[in-house]
Structure formats: C-alpha cells, structure tokens
Amino acid sequence: MSVAAMIGALLTAFFGLMPSYEAFTYNEALGFIDMRLIFLLLGIMIVVEVAERSGLFRFGALYAVKVSRGNPSILFVSVCVIAAAVSVFLSDPTAMLLIAAAMATITKLLRYDPVPYFISAMIMINLGGTSTLIGSVSNMIIGVDAGIGFTEFVEYLGVCEIALWALTIFVLYMLFKSRLGEKKELPKYDPWESVEDKKLFYRSIFILILLVVLFLTLETFGIGIEAVALGCAILALALSGADPTEIFKKLDWETIFFIAGFMFVVGGLESSGILKDLSTQLFQAVGTSDLGASMTTLWFSGLASTAVSNIAIALTFTPMIRGAPGLNSPAVWSALILGTNLGGATTPLSGAVTMMAIGALKREGISVSFTEITKVGVITSLVQLGFASLYLIVRFSLWM
Amino acid sequence: MDVNSLVKKWIESRDKQPETEYEEAKRKFEMAIGKPFITLSVEIPTGFEGFSNEFLKLEKDYQFHEEVKDLIKKRLLLDSRNKNRT
Q1: Given CB atoms, is A58 within the 8 Å cutoff of chain B?
Q2: B9: distance to nearest CA of chain A, Å?
Q3: Angle subtended by helix axes A253-272 and A2-17, to nearest 10
Q4: Interface residue A189 vs chain B (CB under 8 A)
Q5: CA distances from A137 to A18, A37, A92, A346, B26 (A)
C-alpha cells in the first residue's frame, strides 16, 4: 500500500510539475507533506513502543481477566473495556494481537467459545481508536489539519465516546449473551508476575501520564501536539534504556510512508482545484447547512471506511472540508472523526483489525464465517453511526 | 476456486502480523495465567549418533516426560535446600 501511495506521489509530482500542466511549483510541492503530522505519528509510536515493551498493556489485559473471577459476563465486559482502552494508545493491529493472545489463552483454559470474545474485541478495538486525538491515525490527521487540540477533542466528543463504549458493549452483550459460557474457576495468578522490569513499567506509566498532561496544558501556550509527542518520545528513549535501533525497527514505517505518499497526491489534487470542485459538488447536493454537511460527512465517510482505509478517507476529506466555504465548523470536523473511525470493523474487508482477528482465530483452528462477522459488524456500525448522528445534532444544536 | 475462497485467501494474506509474534504474545499469557512451562532444545549427545531414531522418539515418549519431571522436582528441591542453608 505504501509503494502504491508513493508511486501516486511520483506521478503527481511528474505531471504537476510538467511545464504543460504546471499545477504547482516545486516549492509548493515541498509543503504538501505536513511534517507536523509525521512528527506526531513518530513521537506517539516511539512512546507506545516503549510502553509496550514494559508489559504495561499485557498487565492491563491480565488484570481485566482476573477481575472477572471466572464470571463470563464480567469477563466479556472487562475484555471489551480493556480492548478499547489499549487501542487508545496501541495501533489497531498491535492491540488485536495482544487481546487475541490473551483471549486464546483464557478461552482455551476455561473452554469457552472464543468467537464472541474475538469479534467483540475486534469491534471495541476499532471503537477505542476513536476515543482520543491520538487514538487513531485518522484522528491525528484530522486534528492536525483542522487545528483541533486534545482539549477541544474531549470537549466536542468526550461524552459521545463514553456513551458509544457503553452502547456498543450492550449491543455486543445482547448479541452474544447465549454463547459466553458458564461460570468457571479461574486459575490463581498475579498480573504483577508478568512484569519483568518494574522500573521500566513505572517509567512508562509516568511518560504516558506526562504525555496526556502536556497535551492538555501546553496547547494553551501555543505549543503543538507534535512537539509534545516528540519531546515525550525523546524522554521515553532516554528513560527506558532500550536500544533505540530496536525501537526504531518496530515503528510502523509502512503507515508513515503511505501517509506521506497519499498526502502528496492529495496536495497535488488540492493545488489543481480538483478537490475543491468535488467538495462543491458533494456538499451542494445536500446543502451547506451544518446539519446537512455534518450528516453527509458522517454517513459518507462512515460507509466509505467500511471498504477503504480510514487514513485515505481522512486525508481526502480534510482538504475538501477545509476548502469548502461555510463547512469549516466543529460539527463537521467531529462528524468526520466519527465517520472515518466507526466504519472500520463492519466487514472482514474493512480494515487491518478485522483481518487480524480472522487470522488469529484461524491460528487457533477456528473458522468463522464472513456472514457472522459482517452481521455483527453491520449491526454495531449502524447503531454507532445512528447514535453519533443524534449526538452531533444535540451537541452542536444542528436543528436550529 | 469460488469467490468466497478467493476473498478469504486474500484476507489471510493481508494478516501481516508474523505468526512468531502472535505465538510469543500467547506464550507470555500462558506463562502468566496457565502453568508455567519451559521449552528445551536438546541435541543428540556426541557418540550416540547411531541412535538418532530412538532419540527422536523421546520427544513423544510419555514415560520419558515423567522422568524429566522427576529430575526437575529433584533439582528444584535441591536448589531450595541450598537456598535455605545460605
């Protein structure tokens, strides 16, 4: 995918700079890739990689299993919560790998059907990414481009996210209630025993808390989130004592290069005026009222992200909204944040997290039908998008 | 091959997390929640190369596993006694 995006960037540069087209100049092209976003991504990836090495997220998963005391309903809810919580920091595939490994172990041990736990974790991981500005790459893209800070994100969407977590867990519980299994004795274990280096563990917690506190406080002084992320990444590297080469190797370079390439293509299209025309046509059809624009953005991006990468959708939509007169409002940006994320676990083809879940189940020798995943995915996505629509209308008084 | 199988095959090819990474993560959970275990890799002793078939069969020999467990018990008890003395 990254190579395809970079070939696209190369072709955009070639045709855009050609004297016969001259869509943009070389100096303009240099500004197509937003380095603030690249720095933000790199910073967050480094901080999270260090935290993952400390066993912090594994500890969380072990603790979530322990609190259930073998009660399948409590286990189900705590797995859903921890799956969404770890994906606030971890990328979706990494979170899925961690939760799938935990679920494979515990469902095998207690002889539970793993399918409800795997599918629910997959949906909650996708939802967890929506929850904060750094929860998913698409959120970071939209946040940096729209100038939405960490505090504003919480202010616009905090209540919605909490409600979406509760609502989704309720829907999943109702769908899988009969398949969760019976109460069984859980083996005695201490989650602390899984922590190999307690010093690194506490340092990782400190850095994550510091990251959030600085995100909340420094933006009032005009310091961007990318600077905070990079600063915390340097601190994490220094305090962890880990080999930086090993950390750098583990970063998701595929995503970084995909974003850089795609951003260049979008920059070229923006300069040529094509995106503005597209935006005008799309939003003229539904009117440029906040209500029409927000609902179009939410449902269009939500449905599109069931089949297309949400990163690509965020990168394409942000210049369209920014460039359209009268659309640059918190309601429309919030709609885009919710839409790009919520469709991501609708079908097996929707994103990396669904593919990972199917792969993990297959490794455990369990075959799950596409229809089953799609059925649960469609129901939860529709409930989430429906609730998000109502929330946006009420939160931003869109009916007025 | 029908369309369903083709799509399934494509999705599986997109599952990029290496199997070893998943197995490693699972092993850590198994060690924490289930019974801890160790995996040893033992080469055939020098001078016993002619017994390679018998040697390979030991991997699935239940009686041999029990003997190794007994050896581990003895070793752990001995370690514990030595620790108490010091």
Answers
A1: yes
A2: 11
A3: 30
A4: yes
A5: 32, 9, 10, 18, 27
* Tokens coding A206: 């400190």
The answer to whether the beta carbons of residues A84 and A105 sit under 8 Å apart is no
C-alpha pair distances (Å), A353 with each of A128, A143, A346: 12, 22, 10
Residue with tokens 């010093």: A199
**Closest residue on chain A to B14 (Cα):** A355
What is the rounded CA–CA span in Å between residue A90 and residue A45? 8
Residue-wise pLDDT for B13-69, tens only, equals 655 555 677 888 888 888 888 777 787 889 999 999 999 999 999 998 989 999 999
Q: How far is B53 from chain A (nearest CA, A)?
A: 30
Q: Do A109 and B34 touch (CB under 8 A)?
A: yes
Chain B residues whose C-beta sits inside 8 Å of any chain A C-beta: 4, 7-8, 11-12, 14-17, 19, 21-22, 25-26, 28-34
For residue A133, give how far its alpha carbon lies from the nearest alpha carbon of chain B (Å). 25
CB within 8 Å: B32 and A360? no
Q: List, in order, residues 6 or more apart from A332 with CB less than 8 Å away.
A: A290, A293, A294, A297, A321
Q: What's the number of domains chain A is made of?
A: 1
Please give the residue range of the domain that contains residue A113: 56-194+252-395
Helix A114-128 × helix A370-395 angle, to 10°: 30
Q: Which residues of B touch A100 (CB under 8 A)?
A: 22
Concatenated DSSP letters of A354-383: HHHHHHHHHHTT----HHHHHHHHHHHHHH
pLDDT tens digits for range A300-325: 889 988 888 888 888 888 888 887 77
Q: Which of A193, A194, A358 sits opposite B15 (nearest CB)?
A: A358
The position carrying tokens 């020999």 is B61
The answer to whether residue A218 sits within a structural domain is: no
Contact residues for A349 (Cβ-Cβ < 8 A; gap 6+): A306, A307, B7, B11
Look up the pTM and report it.
0.80
